[in-house]
């Protein structure tokens, strides 16, 4: 009698089959969740007046209001607009929006990144795909970066600008304008005395290497004469420099005097540091000699 193989319709489960099955299940679940979110959004539409009220109330918070605007020079004029922080605050209160950014791929020192904003209720989407080269641009030249954290921060910085554009393309323009106006009012009517806010701003600019003289040169008068609206503009300038939208030189005239002043300041700091090190060394040496005598 011949030995014959009988097909019983049984197929052994291999490890790769388990992995593929798990991936398919996860993908199917994610797809169903996305579809459900669109159904819920259309079944329970946003109350626009309620969302508008929440946005305006949010813009009454001083901390947000101070970060709500950015500014950058263009064609000899100063262009201002809502910052990414304000855009995110509005998106969080304008229901049924999904927004963010993600790295799609990474190869040969370049990341492909996508920023997006989806209105699930209106079935409207805005996305921007762009490339981020893994390089830092400095005055001394460009250099490549390989650290994953640095790459992430570089992508996040580049994505913030595109994400802002996506959100502002979805939220109605009149809502955005009302939010901007409320932020300006909040800054102008802040309970903290204007003089104290000016001092705080001077310290922030000082961290960026911008002196009081440069601030006054830009304003055209002493800092003590600064009004609330000018402070709002300075906050926008600071945010633009801090977030990498522009450089200090785009706003301030760093002439030879400022360079020399900065060099003198650095020399003083180094001299003080060297003096402290000498004193510490002499102190330790003296203590050791006393121990030897004992």
Topology readout:
Elements: H1 15-43, H2 48-58, H3 62-66, E1 69-74, E2 77-82, H4 84-93, E3 97-107, E4 110-119, E5 124-133, E6 135-138, E7 141-144, H5 148-170, H6 173-188, H7 194-207, H8 212-219, H9 228-242, H10 256-293
Antiparallel strand pairs: 1-2, 3-4, 4-5, 6-7
Helix pairs in contact: 4-5, 7-9
Explain this structure to me?
- This protein has 294 residues and is of the alpha+beta class.
- It has three domains: 28-94 and 173-250, no CATH class; 96-170, no CATH class; 255-285.
- It is built from ten helices and seven strands.
- It has a three-stranded antiparallel sheet. It has a two-stranded antiparallel ribbon with strand order 1-2.
- A hairpin with a 4-residue loop joins strand 4 and strand 5 (124-133).
- The longest helix is centred in the last third of the chain and has 38 residues, at 256-293.
- Residues 1-10 have low confidence and may be disordered.
Count of all domains: 3
Q: What structural class do the secondary elements suggest?
A: alpha+beta
Please write the string of helix (H) and strand (E) elements. HHHEEHEEEEEHHHHHH
- The total of beta strands comes to 7
Shape assignment: globular
Low-confidence segments: 1-10
Average pLDDT rating: 81
Strand order of the largest sheet: 3-4-5
Largest sheet: 3 strands, antiparallel
Distance between the termini: 106 Å
Q: What Rg do the Cα atoms give?
A: 29 Å
Q: Strand fraction band?
A: 15-25%
